[in-house]
Design goal:
With about 190 residues, this protein is of the alpha/beta class. It contains seven helices and seven strands; from the N terminus they run βαβαβααβαβαββα. The protein has a seven-stranded mixed sheet with strand order 3-2-1-4-5-6-7, covered by helices on one side. Strand 1, helix 1 and strand 2 form a beta-alpha-beta unit. Helix 1 runs parallel beside helix 7 and helix 6 packs across helix 7. The longest helix has 25 residues. The chain is globular and about 50 Å long. The structure holds glycinamide ribonucleotide.
Length: about 190
């Protein structure tokens, strides 16, 4: 059984899709939900799906390596960042090399980096009058949005699309592909 920890800062619609996808799966188990925000919607999925949750304290996250032991206690094979907005510290990257993945709501290397999250990304894509956007799933290294790309998918943008329309198209792709890419990575099957 491969075990996942989901890290999320927000409402957690991707986390929900991932949890639902693997709910009755015998090869992959969502073992832990971690958030840096105590009022994040994603934490409500803990009791709902009977998954332990943990809230990160910024000082402990950056100034200690305690989290590594927690993740090892849960025997985590893959850390999945699903809308997690804090930079992953170097000790975590070092201990989980090529075992941390992130989803980004644009076609990296465009529209990535610090401050490029959520609607900021879609507003920038809209302002640049791009004809397409999409999703990037990539390994995480010590810089925002710079790790090796695992998967990308595109969607067309029409001239009348507003940033919120682009956001909706991109989120649909995320929900469609993120669980399948995780499955492929961990089991070889989608
Ligand atoms: C997703 O669109 C994800 O790509 C984005 O946050 C959203 C989380 O939505 N992540 C980033 O922008 C990271 N730079 P969710 O909480 O509904 O899953």
């Amino acid at each position: 059984m491969k075990k996942i920890a989901i890290f999320a800062s927000g409402k957690g619609s991707n986390a929900r899709k991932i949890i639902e996808h693997f709910e009755d799966n015998e090869q992959v188990d969502v073992r832990l939900i971690i958030s840096n925000k105590k009022d994040a919607g994603v934490l409500e999925m803990g009791p709902e799906f009977v998954i332990p949750t943990k809230i990160l304290n910024r000082k402990e996250f950056y100034d200690s390596e305690n989290l590594v032991q927690d993740l090892k206690t849960y025997e985590i094979d893959l850390i999945v960042l699903a809308g997690f907005l804090w930079l992953v510290p170097a000790y975590l990257v070092r201990n989980f090399r090529r075992k941390i993945i992130n989803i980004h709501p644009a076609l990296l290397p465009k529209y990535g980096g610090k401050g490029m999250y959520g609607m900021n990304v879609h507003q920038a894509v809209h302002a640049a009058k791009e004809k397409e956007s999409g999703i990037t799933i990539h390994f995480v290294n010590n810089e925002y949005d710079k790790g090796a790309v695992i998967f990308q998918e595109t969607c067309a943008i029409s001239p009348s699309d507003r940033p919120k329309d682009i956001a909706a198209k991109v989120l649909k792709l995320e929900h469609q592909y993120f669980p399948r890419v995780i499955s492929k990575l961990l089991t070889g099957n989608t």
